Amino acid sequence: MTYRILSLDGGGSRALIPVSILQRLLDKQPNFLNHVNLIAGTSTSGITALILASADTPEQGLEIARDLWIQGKKLFAESSKVPATADFEFNAKNAIDSIKSIKSIESIKSITSARELWNMGKKALTMNKLRGMTALTGACAYFSQDDLEATLHEIFEDKTIADLKHKILIPAINLGTEEDEHWAPSIIHNLDNRFNSLSLVEVALRVAAMPILFPSHSEHIDAALLTNNPALTAVAQILEDNAATMDEMRILSIGTGENPITLHGSDPDLGYAGWMMDPKLPLAMMQAIIETNSQLTDYQCKQIFTGLRYHRLNPKLGRPWLMHEHKAQFIIEAADIAEDTPLDSTADWLNQGGWNDAQPATHAKRRRSGS
After folding, report:
1. What angle in degrees, to the nearest 10, is found between the helix axes of 16-28 and 58-70?
2. Is 50 exceeded by the pLDDT of residue 44?
3. In this structure, are residues 324 and 282 in contact, taking their beta carbons and an 8 Å threshold?
4. 35, 66, 235, 289: which has the highest count of C-beta atoms within 10 A?
């Protein structure tokens, strides 16, 4: 038996790159996605995985995902943008209006702690177009998930993990609960039924909650800082659930682009301002972790899955691509990168590596040897 894993890296607005590459591969080999046993995706590509797994056909899923990520400028809350100087008067008026929304002096008198006062003020200052300005102080995330959530409800409606037509694996990070006060990876999947009741919108919002850029959701955040390339996470979960042996696995890993970001020539004695707040390379520390953990997973997979059992396709980006870039021209650029990416070696691997063997995808668990 061949067990085929499609692994999609996270990448924010670059999520359009693997979607467009998959469409081009499908044009070359119309049946190759029919053979997939499990789709793994991190961050925005986790949402792509949910779309592909819930669609009636691969073609339909890719069309929905492409339409979603083309809306990047809208989804990543234009209303949350960092305001220009010309917007200051407007935002100052919003601030006054927001503060006036605190209904009465009695509501202030009822405050019993500094935390309550902080929460009341923060609620006022993250309304409407004030969020971007307030985010500059570090008091809140840059973007709201409101527009993304509304769009996800249009796509998924009230579907749950139990309604998916294919196996998926999507990592997130659990920030802890009252009962379990520690951070931990949360590997959301349907290799068994433990997550069946979770709505697809809920899962999508958890995995898209990148710290600093977005608020956490249901005490979960995006796992790109942990496993931006989810290939090995998928392998580990498949082994735990006895779905396949390592010899049976074939992994097609698609990235969101080799990002030419560097701190070469910078001050070696950087503090948090240099690592997180440099205007030329904001959130540099997070970018470094995300880009390099993808590369590390690629290296590990190449050493473990030798021969034709693993293939990585990750186009080169022509310029540094920052985490917060979601303007329309960047979305167009992502589509152009995918269109210009050579696919011949990937198409050859699909044919030679056993991916396209005439064999239906199966999700039955394997028995452990000796059991």
Report:
1. 150
2. yes
3. yes
4. 235
The DSSP letter of residue 27 is H
Whether residue 44 contacts residue 208, with contact meaning beta carbons closer than 8 Å, is answered with: yes
What is the pLDDT averaged over residues 333-361? 87
**Which amino acid, one-letter code, is at 79?**
S
Average model confidence (pLDDT) across the chain: 85
Which one-letter DSSP state was computed for residue 341? S
- Asked if 40 contacts 150 with a C-beta cutoff of 8 angstroms, the reply is no
Token duo for residue 232: 């090995």
d(CA 208, CA 200): 12
Q: Are 18 and 256 in contact (CB under 8 A)?
A: yes
Q: What's the pLDDT at 360?
A: 52
d(CA 256, CA 322): 12
In the block, residue with structure tokens 């690629």: 298
Which CA distances in Å does 106 have to 102, 103, 110, 127? 10, 8, 6, 22
**Cβ-based neighbours of 218, under 8 Å, separated by 6 or more:** 202, 205, 206
The two beta strands, 310-313 and 249-254, are: parallel
Q: At residue 8, what are phi and psi to the nearest 5 degrees?
A: -120, 120
CB-based contacts of 362: which residues, under 8 Å, 6+ apart?
1, 37
Q: How far apart are CA 112 and CA 153, in angstroms?
A: 38
Rounded to whole angstroms, the Cα distance separating 51 from 366 reads 27
Rounded CA-CA distance 158/93 in Å is 39
Other C-beta atoms closer than 10 Å to the C-beta of 115 total: 9
Dig out the tokens for 161 from the structure. 């993990």
Measure CA 118 to chain center: 30
